Amino acid sequence: MSLQKDVIIGLEVHIQLTNLKTKLFCSCSNDYRGTEPNSHVCPICIGLPGSLPVVNKKAIEFATRIAIALNCKINKSMYFFRKNYFYVDLPKGFQISQYNRAGGRAFADGGQITLKLNSHKKDIILNRIHLEEDPARLVHKGSIATSPYTLVDYNRSGVTLIEIVTEPVIGSPEEAREFLKQVKSIVQYSGISSLDLEGSVRVDANISIKGHERSEVKNINSFKEVERALRHEIVRQKNQLKRGKELIQETRHWDDKRRITISLRTKEFEADYRYFPEQDLVPIEIDNNFIQKVKDELPEMPSERSLRLRRDYNLSDFDSDNLVLDKDIADFYEEGVNSDALFGTNEYKQYCNWLMNDVSRVLNEQNKTIKDTKLHPHQIVDIIRHINEGKITTKIAKNIIDDMIDGFSISEILEMKGKKRISDENLLEKLGIEVIEENSKIVKDCRVNPKAIEALIGRVMQKTKGQADPHITRTIILELLKEKGITE
Ligand code: ZN
Ligand code: MN
Fold first, then answer.
1. How far is ligand 2, taken at its centre, from the CA of residue 322, in Å?
2. Which of 46, 276, 323, 473 has the fewest CB atoms inside 10 Å of its own CB, making it the most exposed?
3. Which domain holds residue 194?
């Protein structure tokens, strides 16, 4: 089934600027998570009559950062608009946003993110990015469709959002996933937000099958959910068409508890929002000096960094692209490999493997970021040194990563676990003799198949719980087999 070729997806990605201290138009704290409901509010963010908003200058700076990072064209003068709609999460009855029609402009136009897909590159072209205020937070009991009540917490009301709007050029849920991976990375490098925070992203997706009406799926509350929601919606639309029913333009809600989309309303058009200029705010003027200053302060972005890591550490495209995705991981990597002057090309690659495989595995299992751990970059150096000098086996090393993440050093862990490598030749010889006596069939195999010796070494490993020195064990077993006249 060619599920994808005829699919058209456009995304509207709302990102909370969580690294701001205050809200977009008032001085209430931006940090509402875990606070008493309706405690971070003032006349402005609950929309009391007579209150006047004032734009947060830092929010303009943050928007400039992300605009530069996404290669958008920043509009030098602009003003805010009121987007009118009536809903409990919107105390004023309108959301202060930006509008790129009726004489208005978005914060910045265009821009793109280049994706590396299996066999080719693809530019996801952006339509625009704009600033707007977050509505209040609605709390339901279980699913929105079945909850007996709705609670409203205005602490979130007025928090700054940047909305990234793509052109309808995304061809599949997988492409959407790759796009959002890059968005997350670029946002992290820009320093404007921590997207790991609950509720810091909300995505609306426009989805259609070529030649048919589109639906807009609202309120997808995490990047992970986007792919799932898109898959569901594509299948729903195709099934509808298969049954001979035409699709209608409608707004649907992603119910992440039940993992389905449900119809909210039909025929919602831009005119329904009655956009008009926000007269309570002065227009914004942005000059080139300001843009240049922000640009100068931006760190190296992931794509440039990937190129540099390839060059400086001789990594493959695949390794460097993955390594740079999470800025904290990439910082950790560079600090680590540079903390050991003796590291060479092989160790650079080894270090990268440890981070991307074993460390990442534990982070995923424990749902942590590298910064949540006590792991220090030099500890990976220690691991690699211990392995390369034959002090521990790779297998043991893999088993101690968990403890390292909890802050213990290799020597502490080895002591705790008593897992020092066994290199006592007398003991290993005794175990080797045992193993040869106990496994006559494998020993017979050794006459014809030189690889069968691995099974004998494996038995010694089993007896020592993986602590036997593999090199010494091998030498001893080879000697024993030779003594018995089994091998040459
Ligand atoms: Zn406020
Ligand atoms: Mn929006």
1. 30
2. 276
3. 7-293
